[in-house]
């Protein structure tokens, strides 16, 4: 019952309530909606909803975490490869806007303590390289394209130790767009004043 957002699509993990999931809400009805990335290893986790609109695809994603102690780093690396193939397939048809928790801080500027976190999930060389490959295949990190030097621009803070009040955070949430859409990006904003989660909302303005 959300006024103005009548078109609502949800995915969740099969048989694992609360483990993972993603939603997509729209004012305008999509031409088509699909679930997953066509990978049987990952699709049962309900991590991707894709809506096709006349001029673009919108992909809502919750990328898997490599886990404490990096116990799921290898599955995460396999995810990155499969997800890139999926996004390139969409991009071959029309431009893509990817949004969501991508569970990686791409560069040292994207987290508060890079040196202390080189072996932490979300900042391993493997995960960062996966994001670099995505950008190398014709996609753009919209926030960094507009604000290449912005520091302290984080979207996630642990609940421990008053991290949010001290802005000891990570930038894990992104709007990634096809390169040919980059010129239409008016702004890419981090709503770090919005409370209620260990993440904050982000907003993309697209002409």
Automatic annotation (TrEMBL):
Site features described as Transition state stabilizer, chain residue numbers: 103
UniProt GO cellular component terms: mitochondrion; nucleus
Single annotated GO MF: double-stranded DNA 3'-5' DNA exonuclease activity
Amino-acid positions noted as binding Mg(2+) in the UniProt annotation, renumbered to this chain: 101, 103, 198-199
Compartment list: Nucleus; Cytoplasm; Mitochondrion
Active-site residues, Swiss-Prot/TrEMBL: 62, 101, 199
InterPro entries, A to Z: AP_endonuc_1 (IPR004808), AP_endonuclease_F1_CS (IPR020848), Endo/exonu/phosph_ase_sf (IPR036691), Endo/exonuclease/phosphatase (IPR005135)
Cofactor: Mg(2+); Mn(2+)
UniProt GO BP: base-excision repair
PROSITE patterns assigned: AP_NUCLEASE_F1_3 (PS00728), AP_NUCLEASE_F1_4 (PS51435)
Positions of the record's site feature: Important for catalytic activity: 173
Cofactor: record remark: Probably binds two magnesium or manganese ions per subunit.
CDD domains: Ape1-like_AP-endo (cd09087)
Signal peptide (residue range): none
Pfam families on file: Exo_endo_phos
Keyword field: Cytoplasm, DNA damage, DNA repair, DNA-binding, Endonuclease, Hydrolase, Lyase, Magnesium, Manganese, Metal-binding, Mitochondrion, Nuclease, Nucleus
Domain Endonuclease/exonuclease/phosphatase residue range list: 13-199
Family: Belongs to the DNA repair enzymes AP/ExoA family.
Role, per record: Initiates repair of AP sites in DNA by catalyzing hydrolytic incision of the phosphodiester backbone immediately adjacent to the damage, generating a single-strand break with 5'-deoxyribose phosphate and 3'-hydroxyl ends.
Record's protein name: exodeoxyribonuclease III
Lineage: Eukaryota, Metazoa, Chordata, Craniata, Vertebrata
């Amino acid at each position: 019952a959300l006024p103005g957002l009548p078109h609502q699509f949800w995915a969740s993990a099969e048989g694992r309530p609360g483990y993972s999931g993603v939603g997509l809400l729209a004012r305008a009805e999509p031409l088509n909606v699909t679930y997953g990335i066509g990978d049987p290893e990952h699709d049962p986790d309900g991590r991707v909803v894709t809506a096709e609109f006349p001029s673009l695809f919108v992909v809502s994603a919750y990328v898997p975490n490599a886990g404490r102690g990096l116990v799921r780093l290898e599955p995460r690396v396999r995810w990155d490869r499969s997800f890139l193939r999926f996004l390139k397939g969409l991009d071959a048809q029309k431009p893509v806007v990817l949004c969501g928790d991508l569970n990686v801080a791409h560069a040292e500027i994207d987290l508060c303590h890079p040196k202390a976190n080189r072996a932490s999930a979300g900042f391993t060389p493997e995960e960062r390289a996966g994001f670099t490959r995505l950008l190398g295949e014709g996609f753009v990190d919209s926030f960094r394209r507009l604000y290449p030097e912005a520091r302290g621009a984080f979207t996630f803070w642990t609940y421990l130790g008053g991290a949010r009040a001290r802005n000891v955070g990570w930038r894990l949430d992104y709007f990634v767009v096809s390169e040919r859409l980059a010129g239409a990006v008016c702004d890419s904003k981090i709503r770090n004043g919005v409370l209620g989660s260990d993440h904050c909302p982000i907003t993309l303005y697209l002409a």
